[in-house]
Amino acid sequence: MNIDFEWIIYIMIIITSVMVVFVLFMSIYYLIFWSVSARKIEPVPHSDKFTKFAILIAARNESKVISHIFESLQKQTYPREYFDVYAIVEKEDDPTVEIAKKYGFSYFVRDQLEDGRRTKGYALQECINYLWRNNLNYDSYMIFDADNILEKRYIEVMNDLRQTGVMVGLGFRNFTNANTNWLTVGSSVMFAYMNDVTSRGRSIVFHKATLMGTGYFVDDQIIRDAGGWIFTGMTEDIQLTSYCYYHDVYMRYYPLVCFYDEQSADYKTVHNQHIRWLAGYFERRKFLKKAGVQYDYHPKELHSFMNFEFSCGLIPFIIFNIVLALSFIINIVFGALAVVWGQPVAIYGSLFGLAGLQIAFLYTGFALPAFITILRANDRINLTTKNKIIGVTTYFIYFYDFVLAFFDGLFHPKKRTTWTRIKHTGEVTNKDLTK
Predict the structure, then answer these.
(1) How many CB atoms lie within 10 A of CB 205?
(2) Residue ranges of the chain whose pLDDT lies below 50
(3) Using an 8 Å Cβ cutoff, are 179 and 189 in contact?
(4) Phi, psi of 111 (to 5 degrees)
(5) Which residue ranges make up each domain of the chain?
(6) Domain 53-181+206-262 falls in which CATH fold?
(7) Distance CA 374, CA 37 (A)
(8) CA 141 to centroid of chain Cα atoms
(9) How far from 339 is each of 334, 344, 353, 356, CA to CA, in Å?
(10) Is 58 helix (H, G, I), strand (E, B) or coil?
(11) Using alpha carbons only, how large is the chain's radius of gyration in Å?
(12) pLDDT tens digits, 246-264
């Protein structure tokens, strides 16, 4: 079998060069966000006006961890008469119910539990519909998970944010267990990047933000305009973000106040999360069409631009990584064949050299942003020195799971729509949060 190794080298050089040019071009987008997000953060002015908030917590079988968020809600500086708390459960005998009563909070028991409806999105929909039917009216809803913990001023600051005209807002998503292992470290770095670069950049440039599952408030009027809580997919946060983009809803990320979340330390759980996140990301257009989103708010050109900007957050990374990873494998395979078939050193040396260059380029493309992100958010995510090093060195592996998740979800469609409860341990390594 005759193989033209020189032709293969030539093709691989072209592919690598195209990918380098491609990522440098796309980096302009990220550099803009890096630049604007480095500006000094102006504190939001305090307001003497108060928003009536409904705090909604999806809390099925979460009695092991629910006390932390209840305690943090009791300690809020925001006037207690201006927010009500609802723990959403599926059974009256869920232990969470008694815990909610103990703290003086309300609970809501779902009764629409058909197949396909046992997700967070449907739980929120059912609870909001109940509030509306019973004329329990609120200005805005704050969405949390049972494992969250809020800083004492969180609701107060979110109110200040809303009083400036913001209709959807959130603070810095931090972690209760960032230092547990390399997976929680990787999650901390990724969300810190999404917080302080992607979300803050979007807030400054577009008056938009990236919702990340929990910790945000959304005005009642937005939900009513949509015909109810229509964000019921596996990734209701991506659906709501997309909806706000197309309707030009005023959103804002505000980094000077934190809420905390427990991130999974189990690889299988994290991998399955990545599959669902990607599925929700790619299916947002389908959601908007199904939801009957109106397009008369902006010209078609603006819709296209906003969708392009939102797509820039992930799609270029996937293309870049898949192409370079496949090229790396091809170079290694043909380099090995060149050695076996007695080709000159220049031939297999070039193939192995290209493979080394590609893997170095991939690795640096993750290690450098991880390093900068850790430096910028160091005072908030509070990683140990050891875990800072782990974060930089393993971020490539952590983030590359999204590529594996892309193919896993492609060949196993059920994984894209199967939600399994994430087991929370209640671990809080930052002890100041529970004082």
Answers:
(1) 13
(2) 296-297, 434-435
(3) no
(4) -130, 0
(5) 53-181+206-262
(6) Spore Coat Polysaccharide Biosynthesis Protein SpsA; Chain A (3.90.550)
(7) 15
(8) 19
(9) 9, 8, 14, 16
(10) strand
(11) 24
(12) 888 999 999 999 999 999 8
